[in-house]
Specification:
By secondary structure, this protein is an all-alpha fold. The chain has eight helices and no strands.
């Protein structure tokens, strides 16, 4: 009995085989390959890493599929339009935006993360002149 819901089991996005030129000790030579060359070529170190990286996207897809099956195509389209318009709300370039409407629509307003504690605008050390920032964003400077 299938309800048309997406699978809860996450499928890995990266290939299982990775080809890295190994040096004489079995690791990439940093003088030839560079210090950061091995990181993007390595596969996922743990099966949950890919799932956690795409947690919000997977949750949104599952919720939209469930909503489509329960209420029809209208409900997910309406929510998608509301989220799209909430992202487009703009402020002047020198004013920080909290994106509260978008966070409420996605349900992330209740989550407390690293960026909520250590990424507050009042702790920011750089502040620009409002007129210069607006002129720069308009291409006048």
């Amino acid at each position: 009995m299938s309800f048309g819901l997406p699978s809860l089991k996450v499928k890995p996005e990266q290939a299982s085989e990775c080809k890295i030129r190994d040096g004489p000790y079995g690791i990439p030579n940093p003088f030839v390959e560079g210090l950061s060359s091995a990181k993007p070529k390595l596969r996922v170190s743990h099966p949950l890493e890919a799932s956690e990286r795409n947690y919000h996207l997977n949750e949104e897809k599952m919720n939209m599929a469930m909503l489509r099956n329960i209420q029809g195509l209208h409900a997910p389209l309406k929510l998608t339009m509301e989220r799209k318009f909430a992202k487009k709300i703009g402020r002047l370039p020198f004013l920080p935006s909290s994106n509260l409407q978008h966070e409420v629509l996605t349900g992330r307003d209740l989550d407390i993360g690293f960026e909520d504690i250590l990424n507050t605008p009042d702790m920011c050390e750089t502040a620009g002149q409002p007129h210069a920032i607006v002129e720069r964003s308009l291409g006048l400077l």
